[in-house]
Amino acid sequence: MTDNHSFQVLPDSIAFGLRVLFIGYNPSLTSGEIGHNYAGRGNRFWRLLHDAGLTDYQVKPTEDRELLSIGYGFTNIVSRPTRRADEISRKEYAEGRIRLRDLIAEYRPKVACFVGKGVYEEYNGHRNIPWGVQPDSAVHGVIDFVAPSSSGLVRMKYEEILEIYKLLRQII
């Protein structure tokens, strides 16, 4: 690495009995630097959770692991931090897909919420998927739910993204 930043692989924040396991592409450089999920300045994840009624207040990224107590866990299909998702290699996705399926099969959350269509496409290979609950889940008994990425780079209007996160609240 050519700069002085030190990046860490974010550990999974997971437990048995989760209501939702949130699954991202991979940590941002900011998340890798501070060791917490969805920590980028432009990321709207924590605001979306609160505005959708999934949390009682707007959680800070540094409180991510505390959400295990209310049944929310976090992982990524690839654990290496990058600036952009297009920096992830095909090999990393292939390895991540296997690890993720094993993780979901072992812990069996009620809902596996993929934060971004691209994450779900990499996970199961389907294309042209709808938002929300998927007709076929990869792990029997676990609901696959696809929500828009919370990245500030996403071009959807915030209100449209929020409506999809409100659907998640309804199913859990």
From TrEMBL:
Q: Which domain of life is it from?
A: Bacteria
The UniProt record lists the EC number as 3.2.2.-
Keywords carried by this UniProt record: DNA damage, DNA repair, Glycosidase, Hydrolase
- Uracil-DNA glycosylase-like domain sequence ranges: 15-164
SUPFAM superfamilies to which the protein is assigned, alphabetical: Uracil-DNA glycosylase-like
Q: Does the keyword DNA damage apply?
A: yes
* Molecular functions (GO terms): hydrolase activity, acting on glycosyl bonds
- What Pfam family does this protein match (any one)? UDG
Judged by the first EC level, this protein's enzyme class is hydrolase
* Keyword Metal-binding listed: no
Please report the name of this protein according to its UniProt entry: Mismatch-specific DNA-glycosylase
What organism does this protein naturally occur in?
A: Tumebacillus lipolyticus
